[in-house]
Amino acid sequence: MAPILEARDISKQYGHVEALAGANFDVNAGEVVALIGDNGAGKSTLVRIMSGTEPASSGQLIFEGKQVHLTSPVDARKLGMETVFQDLALAPHLSPVQNMYLGREVMRTGPLGRLGFMDSRSMRKGSREAFEKLGATVRNLNGPVGAMSGGQRQGIAVARAAAWAQKVIFLDEPTAALGVVQTKNVLDLIRRVSAEGIGVVFISHSMPHVMDVADRIHVMWRGRRVATYRKEDTSMEQLVAAMTGAVTQEAS
Amino acid sequence: MTLADTTPTAAGTAAVEDVPAGRWQRIARIQALQIVLLLAVTVAIFTILRPGTFLTPFNIRGIVQNTSILAVLGVGMTFVIITGGIDLSIGSVLVFSGVVADKVMAAQGGQGWGTVLLGTLVACGCGLGWGLLNGVLVAKANVPPLIVTLGSLSAALGFAQILTKGLDLRDAPQTLVNKVGFGNIVGQVPTLAVVAGVVVLAGIVLLHRTRFGLHTYAIGSNAEAGRRVGLKVDRHLIKVYALAGLLAGFAGILNLGFFQSTTIGGQSNTALNVIAGVAIGGTSLFGGVGSVFGTVIGLFIPIVLQNGFIQINVQPFWQQVVVGAVLVTVVYVDQLRRAAAVGGRKHYRFPFLSHRGRRT
To answer: Is A186 on the interface with B (CB under 8 A)?
Structure first.
């Protein structure tokens, strides 16, 4: 089966700093891929390029077998790819419903809609369904997101991405700074999203979480993917060894 | 893995405890309610001290009329401040628009409604132009709003003085003065108040019921998040500053009718007074929070105080002292409440000092 999204030979320079040096990547539909590596290995940069947040200096992105050029996150969204950023990118003063539909508001039908009036009822219903489906704990659909706990906000951000993603979802350290219960919820969310046939790509520093939910694990080192393992064929020792550059499957 | 075993809670059960807040609960949470109470108490005190003269139709009419023009300006300022910006130029834009409208109406001649309508269109056009300029400089040239509007504050007033050689024009058409500035629509209901009321209602609907309003809050709350979900942040900011300018231009024609003069030297504090009203009314200068209704109440308080002090023979200058104290106290209390609600999260620098209302 051809991967739903593939990155080939991606390079990225910031001035003289080489963040990515010919990195490859691929994710299949319904698969959870973990992206691991030491700090500065280029994980976040690669995800930012694949989600349209930053342009690559060189290299190709192939989406469903066709080469694509992403100039903004909006381009990626149009293809059905959503991203949960490390900072979550929520508007703290808005409610979960408003955040869920921000930029994609459901308008009222008829002339009122053309005047800019929104269909709050259907957005509310859609949000409630999305949160319930993913088991995101959202106690109050009206209150400002900024007053909610880190876990709740994370749940809202993930549920938002999952509700809109058709093909691929990127999560940049989705469990960083979360408690035990919230972490479990997010990992459950990841499983449920992939069960719907969506490719999940997540960056994590936590080996237990990676071994818990990932189907395949890509290890990055110094701007390149150096190894890819199926979860059942690897061990934490092997992963850690690859992260330090001791193992190299792929030629540069 | 061990993590999955530590928490027995079955995810996927009804996790959304959606408690639809009652209407009264929601109203009680609005900061504007405190301000309404403050206004009510102020009115009650003056009514008790001067029962025969304070709460009379004549006096109420005067208070409402004095608030009307500020309320029109306040609607635009509320939108701007919710985006995390500021507009210092509205007083000068008001004067400039009044001057140009007056000149055009004088050139056209006539004292009737046709001339007034022409003047209104010209004034609104002038205001819109300044607003667009402010918006483009803030959104596209990335100059902080405080600086941009400080610049247009100075430039618009300068142009007004150049056009008039510094002398106020006093030849507004009679219809504008008699029907709009001082006229009543019915009985003792001033035209000015009805016009302002319509603008305020339209502002409330626009801010709280439409996508335009939602995006205004979103940009003030987290512009970067808005950008990432595809909001056209720059274009929206331009529209918001254009709206504030348009309303300042419209206020210019109302001002011309009310004072029968272009009031070139009289508007230097207007923007600051309006900003004070907006802040008293619960709109956060950090962006993301606010209401037009609160702004209107916040603008009423200084006018009621001034009126009341004159009636009880206190030097009216005390009004400025009291308004200053009220402003600082109200915003301080609001900060405390908000900090408690959010659990002492980090403070942001005033966003209108930075680029595009972005937090740093």
So the answer is: no
